[in-house]
Amino acid sequence: MTDAFEQQHQVLLTASPLQRVGAFALATLAKVDHPGQLTAERFTTVTGTMTRHLLATADVAKAADAGGFWLSASYMLWPNSKINPTARGKQSPAGRRELIMQWRAVPDPADWPGAPCAYCDRPACKWFGKVDIPLGASSEHRNTTAPGHEGTPLCYPCVACLWAFPYGAQLSGGRATAIHSWDDVFLAPVTRLAVQRTLAAAQAPPNKTKPGPYARELAALSAVRAYGQRLHSGVELIVLSNSNKEQFLRTQEMSQPIAQWLRSTVTEPNRRTGYQALVAAQATKAVPGEAFLAKRAFGDSTAILFRTTANLLDRFSAKGAIPVEAMGLAPLVYSYCIEVLNMDEKDVARIQDLARRLATLLGQDSRRGPFTTFMRANAKGGNLYGWFRSQSVEWLLKTRPDKMQRTLLPVEDYRLLFDDDRAWPHRRLLVFAVMEALVEDNWQPKGSTEELEDIADVAANLADDDNE
Ligand SMILES: [Zn+2]
């Protein structure tokens, strides 16, 4: 066997997420842990397995019939390919099988184009177009397409990985959804699970149940939280369709810090305790809390803090007291601000100290009014600086216990709240920390229900700031 021929049986991991998911899917189909363990023999066996799955559709009349899983998926994955030609209905099963075999066969080395593979640089075996390479997946390599050629040169192992990609994805709702990460140790088990589910789905009757909101993001969140090791890279959610009706590719990223932090809500006992309260705080009428947490974990990370704070305030308005869950949430909120929102530990400590002074100030009053005034000053259009000015003298002359510092808002704290890129998250953290400190002090305010409606108003305003 020549070197080139050897190479045509060796799967390499490349810079293409789709190819990488496919490579790990091939490994799973071959019952090995890593693509690097695919020997030439195993590689041949496993590409044969994929072809067999397609050949099985030759006896199926329609995609919706039993055994039609891969035929049905082919319209979304490989439109106008040899598994689903327009004239399919008139072809015999033998004729269909013949076409599928041609499509998936290794091209004769004599016919190779003499160009390097766009993904791995080894000799390509053929030019491939959108039938085999989903839209967008090839665009990053568009420059390598030689003039006069339609498509992208790929070697056989790389194109086999693209064919294997759907096994590592969830095929539903006309889309293929895959979880990818540059952390191979994470990608391996996540892809393995996806392949097992796809193989099971291929055997089962079509699943007609409508998925809940943000089901794809939620699945990624569950994968991250179920993972047993440290995550070294972020997690990407790839959703694509290659169909004639709709060519679609969307990649969203859950950053490494938030993915790792979400894991810590399982592994660290003091964070695990508050997780359900954090989840509940994210919910809306239409979207369950964990689904919305997952959605926000992909690129809207400050909203998780803002929602948590607004929700506590909202529940205060409903119950007349600050929910005791504020205590359980504290380890989550502070670690989130430091590890995910990138706040400085010293700044967080300053905000906690300031909150302690404010809780002393507000907690001396058994009325809810002063608390509400402070919260309103934090909301959109509120004058927080004016509020501090009006309270500073009061603090200095009347409220301050001897052990606490004389200045209510020292200049360093002023900067954090009014002159910092993260001023809004800092203020929201302050709102949270004040509520936590008041719960700690067992503050039991009294007052009318009208006042509670005021607080509900402020809570709605704070929640609205999500979109800032
Ligand atoms: Zn290649």
Main traits of this protein?
single chain; 4-stranded antiparallel beta sheet; binds zinc ion; elongated; two-stranded antiparallel ribbon; 6 strands
Write a structural description.
Helices cover 54% and strands 7% of the residues. The protein has 19 helices and six strands. The protein has a four-stranded antiparallel beta sheet. A two-stranded antiparallel sheet has the order 1-2. A hairpin with a 2-residue loop joins β3 (170-172) and β4 (175-180). α10 crosses α11 (289-297). The protein is elongated, with a radius of gyration of 29 Å. Residues 117, 119-120, 122, 154-155, 157-158 line the site of zinc ion. Residues 117, 119-120, 122, 154-155, 157-158 line the site of zinc ion (ZN).
Structural category: alpha+beta
- Tally of individual domains: 2
Total strand count, please? 6
Q: What is the averaged pLDDT score?
A: 92
Q: Which overall shape is indicated by the principal axes computed on the Cα atoms? A: elongated
Small-molecule binders: zinc ion
Please tell me how large the radius of gyration is. 29 Å
Largest sheet: 4 strands, antiparallel
Straight-line distance between termini: 63 Å
Unreliable runs, pLDDT <50, ≥5 residues?
138-145
Helix content: 40-55%
What portion of the residues fall into strands of 2 or more residues?
5-15%
Q: In sequence order, what are the helices and strands, one letter per element?
A: HHHHHEEHEEHHEEHHHHHHHHHHH
How are the strands of the biggest sheet laid out side by side? Answer: 3-4-5-6
